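Quick start: read one record
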Amino acid sequence: MLELRPDCERCGRDLPPESADARICTFECTFCAPCADGPLGGICPNCGGNFERRPIRPAHLLAKHPASTQRKGPA
């Protein structure tokens, strides 16, 4: 199950579970669309893979399967 990480690893932008701007790679590295499509050029800096739009978990399932609260963005 996807972690649904809460922020962009590059700029720290908030990416709530319902965000259409979240992009992930095969290892669930998470970036916002402006970072993934802009400076990162569509390539994950951690693994070299491509990005895809992160799926949105239906609201009625978030209580049972909540999004991660562990931030990975810049300190």
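The mean pLDDT is 95.
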